[in-house]
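Entry 14: structure prediction run for Exocyst complex component. Input pasted below.
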Amino acid sequence: MGEDIESPNFILMEAKPKRRTVTENGDTGEDLVLATLIGNGDDVGPLVRHAFEMGRPEPLVHQLKNVVRKKEAEIEDLCKTHYEEFIVAVDELRGVLVDAEELKSDLASDNFRLQEVGTALLVKLEALLESYAIKKNVTEAIKMSKICVQVLDLCLKCNNYVSECNFYPALKTMDLIERNYLKLIPVKVLKLIIERRIPVIKSHVEKKVCSQFNEWLVHIRSSAKAIGQTAIGFTASVRQKEEETLERQRKAEEQNVGGLGELAYTLDVEDLEQDSVLRFDLTPLYRAYHIHTILGVPERFRDYYYSNRTLQLKSDLQISSTQPFVESYQTYLAQIAGYFIVEDRVVRTAGGFLTADQVDTMWETAIANIVSVLENQFCTMDSPTHLLLVKDYVTLFGTTLRQYGYEVSPVIDALDKSRDRYHELLLEESRQQIVTAISNDGYQQMLIKKESDYESNVLSFNLQTSDIMPAFTYIAPFSSMVPDVCRIIRSYIKGSVDYLTYGVNTSFFNVVKKYLDKILIDVLNEVILNTISNNGIGVSQAMQIAANISFLEKACDYFLRHAAQLCGIPSRSVERPQAGLSAKVVLKTSRDEAYLALLNVVNTKLDEFMNLAENVNWTTEETPQGVHEFINEVVIYLETVMSTAQQILPMDALYKVGVGALEHISNSIVSAFLNEGIKRFNANAVSAINNDLRVIETFADDRYQLTGLSEIYKEGSFRSYLVEARQLVNLLSSSQPENFMNPVIRERNYNTLDYKKVATICDKFKDSADGIFGSLASRNTKQTAKKKSMDMLKKRLKDFN
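Run finished. Output tokens:
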């Protein structure tokens, strides 16, 4: 029973009475609510708090007092109801006290016996507890020792890694010590030493890594030139193969044979070769960046790398002051190319170590410097070959870096701006070569002794006059100057195309055509005209120059086709008449100038031969029986000129030469009669001139037939260009010269004669008393009918004028 009373469950049950509702007469509703809450054991705190918050605690206190009085009344009623039961309980409690005394005695006896037995056990227990404490201490010591051993072992490994320059495992080991062991080290001295040594070792590792990285910086800079040269070399190889393939394709297309498959195959193989060969080691950079990342200072290392590489770039952008640029440009550009190929690899493989914006900033600096250097150097260069070499390498440089994503348009634009400068140099160089070729020309028809020479000097420039291969030794109608100039022009075209290729404009044929016209008009034509205007030029020279111009004019079509071929333009597109060169028209004009020069030389020589004012006796008393001696020389000279012209000049030029010479002879005869130095002449002089003119007319008819010109120019024979002299001589020899005033007769027989000239000449026609109009036997002074007619003509001409 005692156990039941002391049981916690019993107490709990008694402590929490059943919920009930208290209802008594006279209680207010609030009292009932409050009594119910207290009776049920609910919390009245909120009511109290609410009363005080409302500032009316007195009603609540009054209600609580009512509840207290009511509870006291309930207790009193309860005690009265259970009084007898309470007496019984007290009696039972007294019995319990007796039993408790007996139990206490038994417990004391049992306790004594227990203490006797437990004393020995307590001694053993203390010994056991002491043993347990020692064991715990030993276990703890072993655990601590193991930790220290592990830490010291890691420290030893770290030292070995550092000594072997294996910095990554050394840092990982230190990180392991810091993260997993440092807080667990039980020995304060050891812990303090390790804590002090870790920053020292990290600093040492950082210095060593930076030292190795600096060595790599030096190495990669020294390797940049080789990297750039290798990359540019691959680009050049690919370009060459593309050009060879396109050339084979072009030839195949001309022969209606396809060649596209070979093109694609060749390019794919080349790309694979480049990717497999272009290698360089970035491991030191990766290692250094990774170690600095482990050290927690990646930004510092990135800044260190960027600043050092920027300094290297500034140094690389300085051109050599000890070498001419034409000797150092490849090294200069290859170094820069290698630099940015390395930077591209770093951006793509170093995992955000270097940003694209940083590389773009460096590239913008480099490209501005390169453009400035190129523009300055191009302005000072005086050799088109040097400028072309630099341009070719610059385009290879640009193509190479474009493959790595760099914007190279400013460099290509700089090359395009130097286009005129290059062509000025090329034009001047070609001018000197053309001047030399023309100056060294012997103006002799070219002798070609073998087929290979014919192909290289004639066929290669489309200068052949027939599609049939001639017999050798072959005498070409042009001199050696023509193929020499053609080779110079061809080389000029090649140089022009080479410079414009891989430039800003992919279609540049019209530009090449413009520069081709420029050299043909401003250089070749100008040199030829200067040669023509030279006073020392001879007939053979003038004739050969005229012939040469004809073939140069013909070669213009070859030049245009060759330029189109080099530009990748179909030949049919330049075969249209409107697509021709302007120089062709200019050369045709120059050819006419050459013909005029030739005629001037021929006419000058004819004037030397004839010189009628001095070589003719204008007042001779003897009737001439033959021709003047100088006429034979004139005929021989004309024969030589016409024969040579027939071999060299085309038929139209031959015709012009014959017509010009004969017309000049006619004009010379008329001019002789008009010469102020000749005051008078007689019929004998006219008769002598008539004999000379007949010889010239006979020569004219013969050459007109023998040269085949009669079949081409049927209405304009050579004789027709002697008509003015013939009509004048006929008039002076006529028995009725006054018929000149008859319009019908004049139109039929004297239509080329001018009134004033005839009047002047007739005034000089004065036969002496012993002249031909008188009787040679009797030498009388009787006027003849012819003299009367002449006098009448003079009078009528005087009246007419």
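Notes: The beta strands are 447-448, 474-475. Will compare against the previous run tomorrow.
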